[in-house]
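B., you asked whether I could sanity-check this one before it goes into the benchmark set. Here's the sequence:
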Amino acid sequence: MEEVRKFHGVFITEKECLALEKIEQDTHNNLRVSQEEPYDVLLDGYHVVKLDLRYNSLKSVPLEVVNFLYLKVLKISDNRIVTVPDIIGKLVHLEELYLYLNEISMLPDCFDNLTHVNIFDASSNKILKLPSSFGLLLNLKTLNLSSNNIEDFPKELCNMPNLVELKLYHNQINRFETEIIDLGKLKILDLNSNNFDIFPRELAKIINLIKLDLSQNVIQSIGVEISRLSNLTELDLSDNKLNEIPEYLMKLTNLTRLRLRRNKIIQIPESILQLKNLEILDLDENQITEVPDSLGSMKNLKELYLDFNKLATLPESIFKISSLEKLEVACAGIDFDFTLINNLTNLKSINISKEMRRKFETQIIKMSRYNLEIQSIDC
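And here's what the prediction gave me:
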């Protein structure tokens, strides 16, 4: 049996105790140790299984971590770390690794033996590329590489059969390095704030996606490939350069949330009715001039956003959507019979222009709907 020593009132193997003492000395901190969460050091028997070194202004990863052979969780986020040493690769029991909010530009090529890692977060660093061994993290389920300097969708991520959630927002990605081989379990993909100018056809292979965020890119067109993502329930294409709602989107009949705000869309197609499960439709800040009657047949719609468009009126069918809870129609020059709002018995909030509020001030005061929040916006 390994020799043990007392460290802050608990027994730990001597080797790990000496390592913790050195880390305390270097960080000028007293580490809290326990066999229960939440503490800096979590034990299983006499071994350290979790080490939390966040918020210590560390400039490097303490080399002493190599002594924690049973370590499962390592948190060294929110420091000033520039490089990560190869010794991380010796922590073969590691399951969760948190490196976010540092100054790392390159990860070590040492992931070959880290087969148990299922959560990896290196967001908010300066990473340009991934090492080739990163692709061997085949049990990875959650990966966050957002807010880095990645320019191409990394080929190392194209064959991760157990990956469920991937965040790559706030990078500079405009293409895929290679074809996707296996991302069969990926459900959530966040690529917002990158540099895609067309819908990436490679995404069509990720057929089990349920949530896709491509907002804040420069996408001008969407091809037929998107229709293969039939399991999508949430799609965000806001802040792009689309001038129409592509007909291919109407094949995505499982969508419950569709966000297209801040594009250049002129028209809502009658075929929008095919999205029968839609609960949220966000078309704020486009150039839409007319709302089709068919929109009124969307019986599951709860939130409709049409602020800052070029609408002159609304069809009466909109006021027959009994499920509607939030309606935003603050547009310059819009005019409709405000008393029709009384038909929307579940409505909780509505945006209208200040001009319209002035016009219907008397009716608004007389309305018996005291639970309705009415916001007037200067258009």
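One thing to flag: Helices lie at 14-27, 354-359, 361-366. Otherwise nothing jumped out at me.
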